[in-house]
Amino acid sequence: MPRPIELLSPARNLQCGIEAVRHGADAVYIGAPRFGARAAAGNSVEDIAALVRFAHPFGVRIYVTLNTLLRDGELSDAQALIDELAAIHVDALIVQDERIIHCSPLPLHASTQMDNRSIADVRARAAAGYRQTVLARELSLDDIRAIHEAVPEMPLEAFVHGALCVSYSGRCYASEYCFGRSANRGECAQFCRLPFDLVDAEGRVVRDARSGQPLRGRHLLSLRDMNRADDLEAMMDAGVSSFKIEGRLKEVAYVKNITAYYRQRIDAILARRADLCRASYGTTTLSFKPNPLKSFNRGFTDYFLHGRTDKPICQPLTPKSLGEPVGAVKDVRPGVSLAVAGTVAFANGDGLCFFTSDGHLVGFRVNRVDQQGRLFPADPAVLADLHKGTLLFRNFDADFERILSHPTAERRISVRWRLEESPDADGFRLTLTAEHGRSVTRDFIYPYEVARTPQADNLRRLLTRLGDTPFAASEDDTDVCLTDNWFIPASVFTGWRRQLTDELTSNSPVTAPTSRGVKPFGLQTSGVAPAFASPAGGAGDGAEGGIPASLMTCRHCIRYELGRCPQRQKPYGNRLSEPLSLRLADGRRFPLHFDCKHCEMHVLAPTR
Fold it and tell me: pLDDT by residue (tens digit) across 238-257?
């Protein structure tokens, strides 16, 4: 049997979820009203139910995130919410708190917040009854392959696109420590996107040995965005069956563009692989050309998929979106306009940005583009920082966004009709069969009357007028198998067609999950979360304010990024005076501990 491959898209809200389905998602994950790792992306049960109704006819599954750590006083509310979600037939819950395994009637997926990065981790998830495991983003192809070979019964889900957390997911306590907002409670304040000075043991600002520039006010923990589009087939061969797009805080234009892009890339692979198949049904027709560079991005990285390489994974100059490179400045007319070398077409309202000579990002809006292609900024003062050769990026493509603001995709399930005489009484039998194999057959009593004009072609046309249903049929897929030229009024025949399409829509290829036979957990209080040890010996659960000395555990290594790794690189420049620290603008210093044995970096709590 071919192995189903799932494209899993994010939904900030109902509209995003519907567009994810239309643009080709096989599954959609969406936040519940409470207890999700993106507290700002919660949705009502009513909206989630509407998304389920829209998605299920296509075989698209809906996964709801309840992936925060729960406090004891929240257990009853969580139980009630899970029961509501089961009643509307969501397909699975993505969870972090292991107590939910004891109460959920729904299938459970182990969230990446559980730090699933070893064979032992995934084997434990399988033993506990999880139906799918979301792997840590930091794993390489070899790591994924080893897990799949060791635990082949566990479907593996992996991120392929979107923003990256610099810490292993579930092991970041920096936001709670600095701002009282726990990442494990869905309230991350994005400590990792802040600007820092990198200072040595004497408090001196470290210079970049390659450029000679002081590492002052740099975003040294801010990673580029993930893009693994070129490695999808290798990930499939390593054992990944669900490809996850990050973005439950992204707007609908992002969901449309990125979902459609990965749909096309995955379909191209499935078209030549008989051992793989799509996890849902329907064909998506687009009215635009997807391009991930045109959506929010900080530059791209494949992020350790091929191990630690010399390709940069950090974007220290800015945590903001750069967009797509569009060419270098050709000339500048001070206070008036500029020209850009190349063939890129610009539009009024485009947003452009560039880096100044001292590394600051400056953005501006294009007020007007003349017939010669010269750009007139809304604020001409920005031209003072532009020079011939300055590289420009477009982080807002006005024409592209205008296209995406309108309907851009239609998804239809192929169906076949068959009309014949009823074998049991005077009348007709009508059968509707969908590509997923489900069918509906109904007999309609109606007197036989020979028409004066040929009817078959008209009946075929009426059957293919499927309007706002999720189905599509051609006249070639419509069999009119009548023994005579019987007359059926169009109004009557249209009613028959509507009855069958309504029945087939409700006869979803996604069935309601069966009960897992579990008991409610009531007010039990054991097993809130695992405690994590730190290099300094501290520990904490990240739920009730127990902060470990290690605020972050990172695969990203600042020393390696600077070419200063003593194990893997010939260091640039003089030996650093360690320990190194990250210093915030308010003067707080966060020491860095480099665990070379495990090739990890720890961001420690400030020493007192």
Answer: 999 999 999 988 999 999 99
Q: Could you tell me if 272 and 376 lie in one domain?
A: no
N- to C-terminal Cα distance for the chain?
61
Burial of 603 (0-12, 13-18, 19+ CB in 10 A): buried
Element (H, E) at 46: helix 45-55
- Around Cβ 249, how many Cβ atoms within 10 Å? 14
User: What is the rounded distance in angstroms from the CA atom of residue 517 to the CA atom of residue 201?
Assistant: 58
Residues whose CB falls within 8 Å of the CB of residue 543, separated by 6 or more in sequence, listed in order? 69, 70, 71, 182, 184, 185, 528, 529
Q: Are the beta carbons of 98 and 128 closer than 8 angstroms?
A: yes
**pLDDT tens, 155-172?**
999 999 999 999 999 899
**506, 538, 561 — which closes off a domain?**
506
Do 328 and 372 form a contact (C-beta atoms < 8 A)?
no
- What SS3 class is residue 494? helix
Residue 240 to residues 7, 36, 205: CA-CA distances in angstroms?
A: 11, 24, 43
Provide the whole-model pTM: 0.92
CATH of the domain at 237: 3.20.20.70
Q: Is residue 196 part of a domain?
A: yes
Domain boundary, last residue among 353, 382, 404: 404
